[in-house]
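Backbone-to-sequence.
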């Protein structure tokens, strides 16, 4: 009886085609994984930058909102923050400086009829364009003696610790602060018209410290808020 023989396996051509198809599939999967990682990293940078900017705006807004707080209605309360003597412009009340890139606010937080003798009663915020950050300075005026914290980094790079990666404030020529009267009309004649301020708009233009992996460029975003320093409008 004659036996029938069978041959098994793949030809060289079939093996090469299988390998080629496998490589294409692996490449597609790898590209999808890398794209997903880049997208996730980009979103993380955006979220982190947004969180930092919003937190900064909240603190800015909360403190500026307290400008001119004078619970005892003390006359002659306000001080010249540069000399710690009585302010020549008492009508400016708790906004002793109002400019596009800086603002100095005063308040009687401890309700003792004095301004500057306690912590955080005189605060100055300023935009430091060369360093791409906003600084916060607190001033004490105890017995006419001026002490200052100096312009401390509030939002943006920290010069003493460059390893800390944080957002950069890139407002450039865009005003950090804009001032409006009770009718919503922008006040441009400053500081003469400081008493008319009823609303302060704060605008932050920021970019992430690290580049977005998808574009190779930092993520840029803008945030804004409006603050109404209600105490500033109280007449007494």
């Amino acid at each position: 009886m004659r036996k029938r023989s069978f041959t098994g396996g793949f030809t060289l051509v079939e093996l090469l085609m299988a390998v080629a198809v496998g490589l294409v599939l692996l490449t597609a999967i790898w590209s999808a994984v890398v794209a997903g990682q880049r997208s996730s990293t980009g979103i993380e940078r955006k979220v982190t930058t947004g969180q930092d900017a919003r937190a900064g705006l909240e603190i800015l807004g909360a403190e500026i909102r307290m400008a001119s707080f004078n619970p005892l209605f003390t006359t002659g309360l306000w001080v010249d923050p540069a000399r710690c003597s009585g302010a020549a412009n008492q009508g400016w009340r708790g906004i002793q400086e109002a400019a596009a890139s800086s603002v100095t606010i005063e308040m009687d937080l401890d309700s003792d009829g004095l301004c500057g003798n306690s912590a955080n009663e005189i605060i100055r915020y300023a935009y430091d364009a060369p360093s791409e950050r906003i600084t916060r300075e607190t001033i004490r005026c105890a017995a006419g003696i001026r002490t200052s914290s100096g312009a401390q980094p509030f939002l943006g790079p920290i010069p003493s610790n460059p390893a800390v990666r944080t957002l950069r404030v890139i407002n450039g020529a865009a005003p950090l602060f804009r001032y409006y009267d009770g009718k919503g009309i922008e006040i441009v004649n400053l500081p003469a018209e400081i008493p008319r301020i009823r609303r302060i708009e704060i605008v932050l233009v920021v970019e992430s410290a690290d580049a977005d992996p998808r574009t190779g460029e930092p993520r840029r975003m803008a945030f804004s808020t409006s603050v109404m320093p209600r105490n500033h409008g109280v007449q007494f």
